[in-house]
């Protein structure tokens, strides 16, 4: 039995995982923005204690940051001001006496998402579309995270005067003062302006996936996160842009793009580290 943890800016999900199945899951508010590092670690430990029992053999944690996967040190975590340098593995192993693995949350999503496939392709790329955009890579069933979990940070590349994340996440809508859920509802009801927004969003997604294909030559791209639920609204322009911009058509003929609706895939992936 493994305890998987997915640390986000607003919530922390913890779950007991057997294989790739979540046996029990709880969600709690994330750390207070003004909490010290010691306070955040104490809070996290108290949440772990609520689920921890003798059958737990390992703890896996996904963090919104780069990290040293060998030493389990977290660096400059997004939305957690006090987490500049956190020896998370060392602290939790000393407290709970079991091995602790730490990795980026998007990498954990990719690993958890790949585990849901019956036959895992050679190269799987997981893309999370939420408050931000994250990318993780799984090759031959094994997570490829680079030296500091940064192998998938392709969304920080310069694009259209900003970066890919600015156009392929919730930010695309919020900078316009809009909620993507509301826009999706309007689009499904036939609102032309809402549909036009998702058409534009799909174009930007096609640009992002073109970069993903150039970088990783994926067999399968798995989409997750809240905005992925609106996939039918942006699928067509996404594919049109991808086919226009990516020249290796044989690769696209073999490419599969799927949406995985499960909410706890990053937690599962954390448990599988």
The radius of gyration is 19 Å
CATH superfamily of the largest domain: ATPase, nucleotide binding domain
What are the secondary-structure elements, in order, as H or E? Answer: EEEHEEEEHEHEEEEEHHHHEHHEH
- Quote the CATH topology of the largest domain: Nucleotidyltransferase, domain 5
Second rung of CATH, namely the architecture of the largest domain: 2-Layer Sandwich
Flag low-confidence runs. none
- Beta strands, count: 15
Report on this model:
Strand 5 (about 65-70) and strand 6 form a beta hairpin. The chain is an alpha/beta fold. The two termini are about 15 Å apart. The chain has two domains: about 1-105 and about 265-270, Nucleotidyltransferase, domain 5, CATH 3.30.420.40; about 120-260, Nucleotidyltransferase, domain 5 (2-Layer Sandwich). The mean pLDDT is about 95. It has helices spanning about 35-50, 90-95, 105-115, 165, 170-175, 180-190, 190-215, 230-245, 250-255, 265-270; strands spanning about 1-5, 10-20, 20-30, 60-65, 65-70, 75, 85, 100-105, 125-130, 135-140, 140-145, 160, 160-165, 220-225, 255-260. The protein is built from ten helices and 15 strands. Helix 3 (about 105-115) crosses helix 10. The strands form four sheets. The protein has a five-stranded mixed sheet, sandwiched between helices. A five-stranded mixed sheet has the order 11-10-9-14-15. A three-stranded antiparallel sheet has the order 5-6-7. The longest helix has 25 residues, at about 190-215. It is globular.
